[in-house]
Amino acid sequence: MLKEIRKNTRFETIGRVSAQSLCLFPGIILNISLEGCRVRFPAIVNPDIDKDYELTVSFSEKDAPDGLILLGHIKWLETTEESTEIGVNFLHSPSSKPFADFINKLQLEDQESVCLT
Q1: For residue 64, which of 103, 9, 28 has the smallest C-alpha distance?
Q2: Of 13, 19, 44, 110, which has the fewest beta carbons less than 10 angstroms from its beta carbon?
């Protein structure tokens, strides 16, 4: 699992984001941290940047929590001819605790892999 070098560690993990009020199609998580994530939607999305969105997040890891409900605020977006990438900051959410536990697990796994090399 790779991570970007930045102020807050973001992990590359395989995940899916559904946000019906944002896009009819689910998005793919490109990277994630406790504070936010980067998501690519396979369509042109024109969100209201002043609005907060409810995101349903699932991960491919076998022991990851499924169907986490996270509230997000859009910080930036980039649109191409076929897709939209969105930077989301997470707000206090119904699934904040299990999500934090999952991110802590990713951090521990990352630290263990560094120790083994």
Answers
A1: 103
A2: 44
